Amino acid sequence: MEKNIPTSVSYALQPSYWRYVTMAILVGIACYVAQVFFTLPDISALRATNPASTALMDMRAAETQQKGIIKRRIQFWVPYEQISPHLKYAVLAAQDATFFSRKGSDLGKLLNYVDMNGKEKELTNQGGITLTQQLAKNLYSSSSENQFFKLREFLIVRQLETELSKHRIFEIYLNVIEWGDGIWGAEAAARMYFRTPALKLNREQAALLAAAITNSRLPANPSKRLLRRQQFILERMDNVELP
């Protein structure tokens, strides 16, 4: 004779099932975080050693190689003191005006971006990713949107700010910016576009280079939009603090 089994018994294993699912998720997260930590670069090496290449440089080289093009990399590393103060002011005005004065969280910068009007957002990067974030992306993760790289990038930013001085971060940044096809860093850009060393750049030249950062190049005949960015940066340069 068959016995009727109460339907409630069929749910008896559910708590154990969800415990296993939760454990599996937690283990997966732990493995993910561990993988991120184990792949972090040695930031401390950058205190005294200049990077031989960057993730963005390697990505650009791979892109041109796929097209069957071999493009020479033009880069001349120069110390911080051999870069025009005008370019430093211009880059900060265009990319991260509070770089030297900001400490700790970047939340204030984000809120400042929300309050900015459309013209400011169009003409500068203020409130966007910080200068240190840009450097982390260029050095180690290029333009990837993969969430693994996003977490890794965040941790690298914290490492950069902990291991390196502001001046060293800025020095590396100015030497690895992409300023055209195969043109990397302030010295190469100054020589290619203005036939002068980075130390000799004047205000107008510096502002034009800073305006071209988001375009990764400086055309022979700057567009009206690029010239508007240059003028806007010139107007903001005097408000930037540079230790």
From TrEMBL:
Entry keyword Transferase: yes
Pfam families associated with the record: Transgly
InterPro entries noted in UniProt: Glyco_trans_51 (IPR001264), Lysozyme-like_dom_sf (IPR023346), PBP_transglycosylase (IPR036950), Pep_trsgly (IPR011812)
GO biological process terms, semicolon-separated: cell wall organization; peptidoglycan biosynthetic process; regulation of cell shape
Residues that span the membrane, as ranges: 20-40
Single Gene Ontology MF annotation: pentosyltransferase activity
Every Glycosyl transferase family domain range: 71-237
This protein's UniProt keywords: Cell inner membrane, Cell membrane, Cell shape, Cell wall biogenesis/degradation, Glycosyltransferase, Membrane, Peptidoglycan synthesis, Transferase, Transmembrane, Transmembrane helix
Ribonucleoprotein recorded as keyword: no
A GO cellular component annotation in the UniProt record: membrane
Domain of life per record: Bacteria
Protein name from the UniProt record: Glycosyl transferase family 51 domain-containing protein
Organism of provenance: Nitrosomonas communis
Phylogenetic placement of the source organism: Bacteria, Pseudomonadati, Pseudomonadota, Betaproteobacteria, Nitrosomonadales
